[in-house]
Amino acid sequence: MRHRAQARTDTPQGWRDYVVPQRWDAFTADDHAVWDLLFARQVDLLGSRVVRPFLDGIDLLRLSHPGVPDLDELNAILEPRTGWQTVAVTGLVPDDIFFAMLSERVFPVGNFIRTVEQLDYLEEPDCFHDLFGHIPMLADHDYAGMIEHVGRLGGAAIAAGHGERVARIYWHSVEFGLAREGGDLKILGAGLASSFGEAHFSLESDRVERLPFSVRRAVRTAYRNDVFQPLYLVSETVEATVEEILRTDAEELLTI
Ligand SMILES: [Fe+2]
After folding, report:
1. Which domain holds residue 232?
2. Ligand 1 centroid vs 229 CA: distance in angstroms?
3. Rounded distance, CA 200 to CA 182, Å?
4. For the segment 193-250, what is each residue's pLDDT rounded down to a tens digit?
5. How far is Cα 17 from Cα 136, in angstroms, rounded to an integer?
6. Is 244 a catalytic residue?
7. pLDDT tens, 37-82?
8. What is the DSSP-derived secondary structure letter of residue 172?
9. DSSP 8-state secondary structure symbol assigned to residue 61
10. Residue 194 annotated to the active site
């Protein structure tokens, strides 16, 4: 990974090599039915247990429209709003490529969706995780700016040999973070918002730890990507975490 990162410092546009056509027309009736099933089930499950900007994003981006979203149609709403666009990729992209995309307000979306037999088990993120979990928050102006900043920090940290520092910040906020909102504990992270099993678990289980989010704590907290999290970091508010991450520059990050 580090070697790849160094090799690509000469080609800052290298992320474009990973972009593929979404081929929306190739999604079958079964694929669209899986999206509709997942969407209805997850909206019902989340109710108001997810932060407000997420719910607003679902509405603003018209994600409740039936079927797998067409990225061109989605971008036609998202890009004028916050400058973000989605692109299709075939699966997970290397960390340096991922952060390079984020730094240019480009979010990669898997060009496939799980089958009905795989509803709750995924080897790697599909378009339901990427689109339902991540994209609503990119309609929020402040959060959208924060994710771009995370991309820049990621590039700098990888170049310095410490990519894991930004991966942990990302994990404990954007992917698996919780946040307080009006005194209530809510889901913030896309990995939780898009998960049938872990959404309620993260809020309600008494077998996990929940500690206040700070950039310092996130950087120092390793994570597991193969089991439910044993520890969740809780943002005091979404706005507080956005501000703290935006205040963190690459130099400071490397000294934490
Ligand atoms: Fe994700």
Report:
1. 2-253
2. 14
3. 19
4. 999 999 999 999 999 999 999 999 999 999 988 899 999 999 999 999 999 999 999 9
5. 26
6. no
7. 999 999 999 999 999 999 999 999 999 999 999 999 999 999 999 9
8. I
9. T
10. yes
Is 234 within 8 Å of 213 (Cβ atoms)? yes
Max Cα distance, the chain (Å): 51
**Residues 201/145, Cβ–Cβ less than 8 Å:** no
Are 137 and 53 in contact, with CB atoms under 8 Å apart?
yes
What's the CA gap between 167 and 222, in Å, rounded?
10
CA atoms lying within 13 Å on the CB side of residue 100: 22
Question: How many separate domains does the chain show?
Answer: 1
Using CB atoms within 10 A of its CB, is residue 3 exposed (0-12), middle (13-18) or buried (19+)?
exposed
Q: Which of 149, 172, 173, 194 is catalytic?
A: 194
Among 129, 181, 198, 214, the one annotated catalytic:
129
Q: What is the mean pLDDT of residues 181-189?
A: 97
Q: Identify the CATH number of the domain in which residue 246 sits.
A: 1.10.800.10
Give the Å distance between the CA of 189 and the centre of ligand 1: 8
